[in-house]
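pls design
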């Protein structure tokens, strides 16, 4: 396929072949185990496979039987758009909550949407009030993935190679400018390349997302990226946040929450009538304890669009006799206002908390986390 940029630069891109023909295996010891022996394990373990059509459902229990049936109770499974992907979910409604003064003391209600994600740990992805005193919680869980109807579908990744045509530079002008801006921003030094594009060393660029590992210079141009569009980062605000001088506050109801990054997490209540404030220290920052905790985790949360930091050594818990601790889940928030922030707290275990923090400040930092999920140090 041929592509022309806005600067009239022409390229030929080679799309991946739909099928790759392979020669029949002719090894020294034959083609391998007998297919009947290989498939016998399916029958021995009494495994069944299913396929759902518009009306009929087909059930194949290997080595046992094949059934065609229609379930009168079956209905269309709802989906939810999550980060550009249609994901099926299972909904649980919980009622009989605290009476809502705004709705004539009608009990509050919450809709919990469970979505399959094999690398999740039953995390709450979002909490919002969809109408007065009616709430919605999105939960990522690996448990639901055992059901074929809700299984998480990975997008296939294909390699696309682009080659410049005669009269065009190896790299599009917009891409060259983008890489140069990013290099200058990263190094803090401004350098000028006086060589015209046609005199620069020829290079083959692979814009494939499968390239491993991607570097700053190998990033695809902006038109090839699908990233959240957030305001340009405020360097001073970001520095203050990373130093712990600019603390994020939020929360609804009696308790409010405060995160001073790299320092502490506090749960507090301000008495408007008497002017007092009650503080509960949920945890303080200890990098070594966080690194040890990350090493024990089986998956990396950054793949889910956020990073998690562990704060330990909070106020002593009367119920457990141990200091409180909190996992701070830092996630990008789409907003045109850099200072907008959303915080929520849950307590999966007694005096062990998870604080969700969503803010546009976090968006550019997620691209720079290290192997421990930590943001880069301040220069």
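designed seq:
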């Amino acid at each position: 396929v041929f592509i022309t940029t806005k600067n009239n630069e022409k390229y030929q891109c080679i799309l991946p072949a739909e099928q790759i023909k392979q020669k029949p295996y002719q090894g020294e010891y034959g083609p391998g185990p007998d297919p009947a022996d290989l498939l016998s394990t399916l029958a021995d373990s009494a495994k069944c496979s299913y396929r759902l059509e518009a009306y009929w459902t087909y059930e194949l229990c290997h080595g046992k039987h094949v059934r065609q049936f229609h379930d009168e109770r079956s209905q269309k499974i709802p989906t939810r758009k999550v980060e550009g992907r249609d994901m099926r979910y299972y909904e649980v409604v919980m009622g009989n909550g605290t009476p809502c003064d705004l709705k004539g003391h009608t009990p509050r209600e919450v809709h919990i949407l469970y979505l399959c994600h094999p690398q999740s740990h039953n995390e709450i992805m979002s909490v919002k009030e969809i109408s007065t005193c009616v709430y919605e919680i999105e939960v990522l869980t690996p448990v639901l993935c055992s059901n074929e109807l809700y299984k998480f579908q990975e997008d296939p990744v294909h390699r696309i190679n682009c080659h410049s045509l005669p009269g065009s530079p190896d790299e599009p002008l917009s891409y060259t400018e983008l890489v140069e801006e990013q290099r200058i921003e990263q190094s803090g030094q401004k350098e000028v390349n006086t060589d015209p594009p046609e005199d620069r060393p020829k290079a083959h660029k692979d814009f494939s997302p499968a390239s491993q590992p991607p570097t700053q210079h190998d990033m695809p141009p902006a038109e090839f990226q699908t990233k959240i569009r957030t305001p340009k980062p405020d360097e001073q605000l970001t520095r203050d946040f990373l130093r712990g001088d600019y603390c994020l506050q939020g929360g609804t109801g009696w308790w409010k929450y405060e995160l001073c990054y790299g320092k502490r997490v506090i749960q507090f209540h301000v008495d408007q009538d008497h002017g007092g404030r009650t503080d509960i220290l949920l945890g303080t920052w200890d990098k070594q304890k966080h690194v040890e905790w990350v090493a024990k985790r089986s998956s990396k949360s950054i793949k889910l669009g956020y990073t998690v930091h562990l704060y330990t050594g909070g106020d002593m818990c009367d119920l457990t006799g141990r200091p409180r601790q909190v996992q701070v889940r830092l996630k990008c928030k789409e907003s045109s206002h850099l200072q907008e922030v959303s915080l929520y707290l849950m307590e999966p275990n007694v005096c062990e908390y998870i604080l969700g923090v969503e803010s546009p400040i976090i968006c550019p930092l997620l691209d720079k986390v290290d192997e421990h999920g930590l943001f880069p140090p301040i220069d």
